[in-house]
Amino acid sequence: MGSRKELSKDLRNKQREDKPSLLLSFHTEPKQESLDSDFETQWALGDSEMASVKLEDKSQKLGLNVIIKDDKEKNVVIINNGEGDLLTQDGIPEVETLGEKQQEDYNHKKCHHCPHCDKHFSFQSLLKRHIKIHTGEKPYSCSDCGKCFSVLGVLKVHQRIHTGDKPYSCSDCGMCFISSTILNVHQRVHTGEKPYSCSDCGKSFSRLGGLKLHQRVHTGDKPYSCSDCGKCFSQIGNLNLHQRIHTGEKPYSCSDCGKSFSRLGGLKLHQRVHTGDKPYSCSDCGKCFSHLGSLKLHQRVHTGDKPYSCSDCGKCFSHLGSLKLHQRVHTGDKPYSCFDCGKCYSRLNYLKVHQLMHKGNKPYSCSDCGKGFISSSELTSHQRVHTGEKPYSCSDCGKFFSQLGSLKVHQRIHTGDKPHSCSDCGTFFSQLGSLKRHQRIHTGDKPYSCSDCGKCFSHLCTLKRHQHIHTGDKP
After folding, report:
1. What are the angstrom distances between the C-alpha of 259 and each of 1, 35, 243, 250, 251?
2. Residue 386: inside a domain, yes or no?
3. Domain termination residue (choose one: 247, 282, 316)
């Protein structure tokens, strides 16, 4: 009789051991309330350590034999003997594989319904935790910074920011992280995994947040606006950088010269001035540049690209700055004035050259005759007197000139252009010098005098003819 009872007990234990186990999976990807919300929520809800503690506590209350297995993608929890209720909620284990009968029984037990959405829960405690998403209740606060959280696990992970604890390390580079979720995202740097792709253009991203930010390119959404000027931005980081224009904040300074910058990228580019680093080279001529933008502008020399045109005369330029300088020809704008004589110039370099006249400084001297000049361009023009070089030719008559200005004056013979007019009689002249000589008729000015008799003349040629009287020469 005793042996029959023991045999029956063994059969019942065997049947119990043969019952299928319930497999639960803890999904590590949290629900993100907003794109730019603090990512501590992601750390905590995706933290396998926190999940394991919660499940062990829950299993002890239910009297279950729980085995927790750690996997790279998710935590797997097996509740043996099929006893007790199953746990399910956002960020809480949910059923992954069940038999049809077990699934039906399990669904029947999910009797706690959320009044705000369609979700059902098998535990009242899980429903209460879920409702905090709708109510915004955050009962757990950080003792260091006062920040509040709706889930205790999130707070615990957040506190690692203050303690500096980073228990999760990357096996590839050794970098450490405060949560397993951040580690998993980081490891995509090494694996190259980009699981999130844009449905509009197909571009892939390693992070969901990166994809959501990118999608604003297609939607045109710019939710962040500047309170000073109203300009809108798609990312809060770009807004913060923009606001430094208004605040004048320049947090990045050069250790070599002390110059400050509002952006780190600006500082790094500037530092190449001191290091001499020129990483960008022209494929046509090999010239190197410290900035990519400078290289692109230079390449227009080879391509002949001139994308900027003057709306007044149609002249084209390869640089926007050159166009703006040219437009002063039409507007007459001369923003640079000499402190000594008040003369104004349209370009700063013209003013600097002019100021050398007042200082008496002539740094450029001719190697042939020793004559000094205030600019290198004046020296170059002068040297053509010695070399006889005449690089400018008239397209109408073929006549050559050593100076570009002389060619332009000459071309007025062919065009008939007479831009200089007399304010007294209205007569027009092709050259400014001719106008000035003419004006002596009205002013009576006679700057040329005979050294023999003292008679004065308004024109040099008239003086020379007069001097033949004294010399006896016959012209």
Report:
1. 98, 36, 20, 9, 10
2. no
3. 247
